Amino acid sequence: MQNSLSRLLFVFVLLIGMSSCGEYNKLLKSTDYEKMYTEAKRYYEKKNYGKAVPLLDELLIQFKADSRFKEVYLMYAYTRYGLEEFVLASYHFKNFYESFPNSDKAEEALFMHVYCDYLDSYPYYLDPSVSRHAMDNLQLFINIYPNSERVADCNKYMDELRGRLRQKSLELAKLYIRMEDYRAATVALRNTLKDYPELDNSDEVRYLLIRCAYLLAKGSVENKKEERFKEVAKVHKEFIEEHGADNKYYPRVKDVYETSLKDLKDLSVKRGYSFYDRKEYAAAGKFFLSESKRDGVEQKDKLHYLAVKSYYKEAMRNEIERGQYLNEVVNAAADFSSRFGTDNTYSKRVAALRKKAESKLKTNQ
Questions:
Q1: Inside any domain, residue 306
Q2: Most exposed residue of 51, 86, 103, 221, measured as fewest CB within 10 angstroms of its CB?
Q3: How many other C-beta atoms can be found within 10 angstroms of the C-beta atom of residue 165?
Q4: Using CA atoms, how far apart are residues 297 and 272, in angstroms rounded to an integer?
Q5: Residues 56, 108 within the same domain
């Protein structure tokens, strides 16, 4: 008995639904636009936008000369908004505003236009141009209606969109780092600092910047390494000026900086050796002697010894200027003794070269 009643109830509901659909389809095909208007409003108020849209579509054609056209058009825009068709809704709200700028609904329509653009903007990891477009439109509303109560909402949406662009900018830089494209990462990090000075993690960005500067220098060709290691020092100075040495990232920044200084020193010594290997002994001697007197350089005694040795090699190679370079050997050797004493690891070798040079000077060889 209960099953029979359930079947009857189902059939009854089905018949009512079919009848309702039949009535709706009949209304769509009819020319009774007053009833169509009444039903469209009823569906709209019940938020049954799917059924309201076809009726409003027809009314927009039929009501072009009717005083109710603006009402119908605004309802139509709102139905598209209710269906979450934000691009279409944005277009119609904007068109309403431009078509009826003196309407008491003009401000509302323009706000809904920019709000739909905001809703249609993508997450930070997708195309940022949509967010920028939405921000431009929100600013446009603020410029046109600076005293509107909706300005506060516009500012809130702009802050959110700007936050997305900020995050996008930083994530792009981090992507370049993962790809080991440190030049591109450096540009992206610099742009992030420039475009978003309000960053609350600018210390992290500058830490990433010094890492990229170091890694870029480390992987560079030899003739660009020195210049790029000096860029590390520049970024280190920027960090100190902006965040101080008590910042939580500074220990890591300092570690990168000190490593770069060591690499720069090693690079300098390597350059001296390259002169020596190419038998450019005069250049090698001058370089080693200069490096041995520079602050912060390790093994100064070894570098000074190499300068003496290089000058002696040049004297033996260069017959025309042999006397000049033999004197360079004697002078550099004397300077070595005054700087490092006579019991230094390299003292005996320096003394032996000096003795040879002095002997050759006496015999004019």
A1: yes
A2: 221
A3: 18
A4: 13
A5: yes
The structure's pTM equals 0.61
Angle, CA of 17, 20 and 25, to the nearest 5°: 125
**What CATH number does residue 304 fall under?**
1.25.40.10
pLDDT in tens for each of the 365 residues of the chain? Answer: 455 555 545 444 444 444 456 688 887 777 788 998 999 899 999 999 999 999 999 999 988 888 899 999 999 999 999 999 999 999 999 999 999 999 999 999 999 999 998 888 765 555 667 888 889 999 999 999 999 999 999 999 999 998 888 888 898 999 999 999 999 999 999 999 998 888 889 999 999 999 999 999 888 887 788 888 889 999 999 999 999 999 999 999 999 999 888 887 777 677 777 888 888 888 888 988 888 887 767 788 988 999 999 999 999 988 889 999 999 999 999 999 999 998 999 999 999 999 998 998 888 65
User: Burial, 344: exposed, middle or buried (Cβ in 10 Å; 0-12, 13-18, 19+)?
Assistant: middle
Between CA 116 and CA 139 the distance in angstroms is: 14
Residues 151 and 212 in one domain: no
Q: At residue 147, what are phi and psi to the nearest 5 degrees?
A: -100, 5
Six-digit token pair at 11?
Answer: 């059939």
Instruction: Determine the residue type at 175.
Output: L
- Domain end call among 310, 339, 359: 310
